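Homework help board

Subject: predicted structure for assignment chain

Our instructor gave us this sequence and asked us to write out the predicted structure in token form, then describe one feature. I got the tokens but I'm not sure how to describe them. Can anyone check?
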Amino acid sequence: MSKPYKISVNENQVFNFTENSVTALDAVSVEENHFHILNENTPFQAEVVTADFNSRKYSVKVNGNTYDVSIANELDLLIESMGISVGANKVVNEIKAPMPGLILEVCVAVGQEVTENEPLLILEAMKMENTLVSPRSGKIKSIAVEKSNAVEKGQLLIEFE
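My token output:
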């Protein structure tokens, strides 16, 4: 059985292909990233302008017109049919102690707006100072610890709104 592919062009046109239909396409590489394609006796000049292989997103110029193309393979289509979002961002609303230790400094206050990677507090563990940074931008809802508090692994330290 031929593997299915879903090709989205400029996010408004969708084409379904199979592995067999793609391999049946008459395409010849004339130089790196440049192709001469013959489809149903119609010639096309194509150039791959940019390529992000990991996310399968490409910018392709065909006969002088540029198109944004994304390709979904068999696994992507299965995940989509299951209603699962690949790479969806997980929103972190709590900061918990990654290890037991002692709070040396709290760098934020309740109600303060913070940005991603901004220092929240300093935790001393095994004679090392560990700066815990914000995993996201947001507003501090509560702080459950103070300077000089001993904390256990998994203990709630800071909550975001």
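Reply (TA_rk): Your tokens look well-formed. For the description, you could write something like this. The chain has two domains: 4-81, 94-160. That's the kind of observation they're looking for.
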